[in-house]
Design a protein that fits this description.
The chain is of the alpha+beta class. Helices cover about 40% and strands about 15% of the residues. A four-stranded mixed sheet has the order 1-2-6-5. The longest helix has 23 residues. About 20% of the residues are buried. The structure holds zinc ion. Zinc ion (ZN) binds next to loops. Zinc ion binds next to loops.
C-alpha cells in the first residue's frame, strides 16, 4: 500500500501543544489532527511546508472515537515530513505556529470552524514575531526542494520500487 500520510510522533504533538497553549489558548477545546505528508507538494512554484484544513461532518463523525470529547477532529494540520525533519527547532515552531494561526474558531457562528486567510490582521502579528528572520519560509521551501532532489537521486541509484528514504537523509544546513 502506498501510504501518503503518517501520524506525527509524540515530540511533534508535544511541541504543537506548547505552541497552542502559548499563542492560541482560545483553541484549547479544539481537536486538531497532525499528520506528516510524505508527498512533495508544490504550489505557485514553491514547495509547500505545511497546510491547515478544516474537516467536514463526515470526518468528524468517523473520528469521534479518537478524541476524548466525542466531537471528532475539527482541523487537520499537515506537515511535509522531509522538510520538517530537516528544519531547525526554531523553524519547526514557526511552521506549526503559522499553521495554527489559520485556525479561526468562531463558536457563535453556525459554521464555527473557519480558516483564517493570510491577509487578515492576525497574520501581521505572525510577521512581527518573525521579524528576525523574514525569509524562514522561502528558505525552508528551497531546502525542501533540495531535499526532494536528493531523495529522488538516491532512489534512482537504488532502483525503482523503493520508498523515498525520508528519515535517512542528511543535508547540509544552510546557515544564514
Ligand atoms: Zn499559511
Amino acid at each position: 500500500m502506498d501510504d501518503r500520510f503518517e501520524d506525527v510522533g509524540g515530540d511533534v504533538l508535544q511541541l504543537a501543544r506548547e505552541i497552542q497553549e502559548g499563542y492560541f489558548p482560545e483553541n484549547e477545546d479544539l481537536n486538531i489532527k497532525y499528520l506528516f505528508d510524505l508527498k512533495e507538494r508544490i504550489s505557485d512554484g514553491r514547495h509547500v511546508l505545511g497546510r491547515c484544513q478544516r474537516t467536514n461532518d463526515v470526518i468528524r463523525h468517523f473520528t469521534k472515537g479518537e478524541v476524548k470529547d466525542l466531537s471528532g477532529y475539527q482541523y487537520i494540520i499537515y506537515l511535509d515530513k522531509l522538510a520538517y525533519l530537516n528544519m531547525s527547532q526554531e523553524d519547526k515552531i514557526r511552521l506549526i505556529r503559522h499553521e495554527q494561526r489559520h485556525i479561526l474558531y468562531d463558536p457563535e457562528s453556525k459554521h464555527p470552524y473557519k480558516i483564517a486567510p493570510h491577509n487578515i490582521e492576525d497574520f501581521i502579528e505572525e510577521i512581527d514575531i518573525n521579524k528576525q528572520d523574514f525569509s524562514w519560509l522561502s528558505k525552508n521551501a528551497v531546502i525542501a526542494e533540495a531535499l526532494y532532489c536528493q531523495a529522488k537521486e538516491e532512489q534512482k541509484k537504488k532502483g525503482k520500487g523503493e520508498q523515498l528514504p525520508l528519515r535517512k537523509l542528511s543535508i547540509r544546513k544552510m546557515e544564514d
